Amino acid sequence: MKLFFISDIHGSLYYLKKAFENYEKEASDYIIILGDELYHGARNELPKGYNPKEVTKFLNGYKEKIIAVRGNCDSEVDEVVLEYPMMTTYSNILYNGKRLFLTHGHLYNRENLPKLSKGDVLIYGHTHVPVAEKQDDIFIINPGSISMPKEDNPNSYGVLEDDLFQIKDLDGNTFMKIKL
């Protein structure tokens, strides 16, 4: 199974379409969205191609393939227009004998870990900074942001296949990876 991870779309139709070109090229089975789908947030500039209404339509076209969690910029009205569940603070997926703990990152993150077992994986967004590391027998992963990366990082997404998590720029080039 191949999983495709994105975070922090912030209403950018332009970057969402670029990310989904990669989803198609990667031939992934499911799309994991780690929050902040539709809105840019009060502290952020408008991202290129900001169009929450069209982002909603686009994402709804993939509703049967999306697993999503709520970000700090997401609201209950978003779940009214999005045709998939996305208001949970976290979700868990079992993958090759490991628990993938999926969350946005504003509550659980590398500084505030949830209760995880040795070898489990915390995957979050929120910071817009990619991370792939191991901390005290827990894997910590952040695919970065597709629309508003920070700290001179590229716009990015993640792919998990055969226990290898790769973080890639929107041209499909791997720039960070970790074996789970």
TrEMBL record:
Its cofactor is a divalent metal cation. Gene3D superfamilies: 3.60.21.10. It comes from the Bacteria. InterPro entries: Calcineurin-like_PHP_lpxH, Metallo-depent_PP-like, MPP_YfcE, PdiEstase_YfcE_CS, Phosphodiesterase_MJ0936/Vps29. Signal peptide: none annotated. Residues 1-161 form the Calcineurin-like phosphoesterase domain. CDD domains: MPP_YfcE. One of its GO terms (molecular function) is metal ion binding. The keyword Iron does not apply. SUPFAM superfamilies: Metallo-dependent phosphatases (SSF56300). It is an enzyme of class 3 (hydrolase). Its EC number is 3.1.4.-. The keyword Secreted does not apply. Keywords: Hydrolase, Metal-binding. Belongs to the metallophosphoesterase superfamily. YfcE family. PANTHER family: VACUOLAR SORTING PROTEIN VPS29. This is Phosphoesterase. It comes from Clostridium acidisoli DSM 12555.
